[in-house]
Every structure is written in structure tokens, then in C-alpha cells.
């Protein structure tokens, strides 16, 4: 039996990311424009996901180099660490989105970013529907191939609801290795973070060229980091309770 070399996986991941960047060039620009609109309007970027897609939500929130104007939507029962099987049942439960949005929901100046590879379960889809009913734009981070292959569990899909769709190109089932019959090495977490960073880079380049003051966190473990973040915490801590 042959031994899998690190370069085999590394090369596969590198190719996936290169393909993702190329396939999403236009969509990344469109997503960045929506985020820039939020910053211009002094509004919020709402981010959401369920199961392991919550890793992408964590990547958007209170992250060194990330945006401070982020409101993470969350319910404890969606996290596998609080009950793995129950978390799957929870994201399939209709009505949870309305509960999560009861405290605060996106409006016309805000943007909702939803991460979901399968993009068919009621929770992420109903979040998108509710946001669009409130005239909020939706950035759907999903896999078109996975959505097409998954059984429909709600009235729509993330692809259908997205104002902009960022396609992770993840194959149905998420696993990537071995290439001819994937069983392990899931890629969605890596690709979701990469897509979000592509958007952030585009926001930075265009925002600074425009002269916008971008609300970006600094690492609290570098000189001046705590001081730089203090003003952002004072401003957004009043409207984003998870920052308190």
C-alpha cells in the first residue's frame, strides 16, 4: 500500500483554492461591493451558519484583520460540540431562523452572509428568506454541486436565495481524498475561510482607494492592538452583544 505524501494533499488543496478564486472572481467583486455598502452606511454584516459551517462564522467575528461591523447569528443547539446528532436535527427544524432573528435582524442597509455547503436545510434557507423580506442583500457561501445533489428540505435553496453566490466548488459529501472515491479530508472549512478572505482583500483594496475608514480589528497580541481595538469595541459593543 502506498503512503500518502503531504504534497499530494497540499497540491490538491492548492488546486482547489486556485479553481475557487478563478471561478468566483466576479462574485467576489460583487460581494465586496455589498460589504463596502455596509461600511458606507455604517451598518452591519450579519453572518450565519450551522454545524461545521459555524467555523466560518467564527472566522468572520472578532478576528484579527477582520471586520468589526459583524453581527454573528447563533443558537447553541446548532453547534456539534453541544450535541452532534441534535445539531443536525436543529438545522433541519423549520422556524429556528425566526427565533434567532427575533433579537435583531438585518435591514435594508445590512448584508447577511450565510455559510452552508449543502444549502438546503430550513435554518440557513429561512434566514435568507427573512433577510430578503427585510430588503437585505444576501451573500450565499455554498457549493452549487452539493446543493444540486442534496435532498430538498425546505421551500428553496441557498443558491436560489443569494443576491451573490460564492461557490466553494466542494463536491457532494465534502470529502476530497482519495480523488477517485473521496472519503476523508473535507475542504469546506478551508475554502469558506479562503472565500471570505478574498472578499476582505477586495474590500480593503477598494475601500482604501476610496478613502473609507475600514473598521478592522488588530491582534490584541501585538503592540498597540488593545488600544486600536478599544474604539471599535466602544462603538460596536453597543449593538453587537457578543462583543461584550
Secondary structural class: alpha/beta
Adjacency order of strands in the biggest sheet: 2-1-3-4-5
Please, what is the CATH homologous superfamily?
Glucose-6-phosphate isomerase like protein, domain 1
H and E string: HHEHEHHEHEHHEHH
First CA to last CA: what distance?
53 Å
Principal-axis shape? globular
* Poorly predicted sequence stretches spanning 5 or more consecutive residues: none
- Mean pLDDT comes to 95
Give the % helix. Answer: 40-55%
Compact overview of the structure:
With 244 residues, the protein is an alpha/beta fold. The protein is built from ten helices and five strands.
Structure description:
Helices cover 46% and strands 9% of the residues. It has one domain: Glucose-6-phosphate isomerase like protein, domain 1 (Rossmann fold, 3-Layer(aba) Sandwich). The longest helix has 23 residues, at 188-210. The mean pLDDT is 95. The protein has a 5-stranded parallel beta sheet with strand order 2-1-3-4-5, with helices on both faces. By secondary structure, it is an alpha/beta fold. Strand 1 (45-49), helix 3 and strand 2 form a beta-alpha-beta unit. Keywords: Isomerase. Residues 35-209 form the SIS domain. This is Sugar isomerase domain-containing protein.
